[in-house]
Amino acid sequence: MSEVRGDAGSRTYVLRVRVENTTDSTVELRLVGVTLRDGSALDSVSSTGAIRAGTTGSVTAAWDLPTDSMPAAVDAVLLRDGTAVADRSVPLERPPIRG
């Protein structure tokens, strides 16, 4: 789920990600920030916590958006057994606005 909630005066970008661990290790996904269309960045950290092999987990992150801004990409880090194995900025499609 990816959406902007609120009205023109106060908006929040909400992203929920489901992770299926198909590895033999424990993994964790951290959403560490969002890049806006104007190039500015908003930092935060939301995490799935440890996801054991063969199980699933999810993470929901939320960022308060400046007036008239929209998210362009989310920054994510994947850890395997506590060690970062991927650090990516993932482009986003324009999310719907609800509210």
Widest sheet: strand order? 5-2-1-8
> What is the molecular shape?
elongated
Largest sheet: 4 strands, mixed
Bin the strand percentage.
Answer: over 45%
Order of helices and strands: EEEEEEEE
Q: Helix/strand/pairing class, anyone?
A: mainly beta
Distance from N terminus to C terminus (CA atoms, Å) equals: 15 Å
Number of DSSP E strands = 8
Mean pLDDT: 95
Supply Rg: 14 Å
DSSP helix count? 0
Low-confidence stretches: none
The percentage helix is under 10%
Write the layout of secondary structure elements.
Elements: E1 2-7, E2 10-20, E3 27-36, E4 41-47, E5 56-65, E6 71-80, E7 83-91, E8 97-98
Parallel strand pairs: 1-8
Antiparallel strand pairs: 1-2, 2-5, 3-4, 3-6, 6-7
How would you characterize the overall build of this protein?
The structure is a single chain. The chain is mostly beta strands. Helix content is about 0%, strand content about 65%. The protein contains no helices and 8 strands. It is elongated and about 45 Å long. The chain starts with a strand and ends with a strand. The model has no long low-confidence stretch (mean pLDDT about 95).
Précis, in short:
By secondary structure, the chain is mainly β.
What are the main properties of this structure?
single chain; 99 residues; mainly beta; 4-stranded mixed β-sheet; elongated
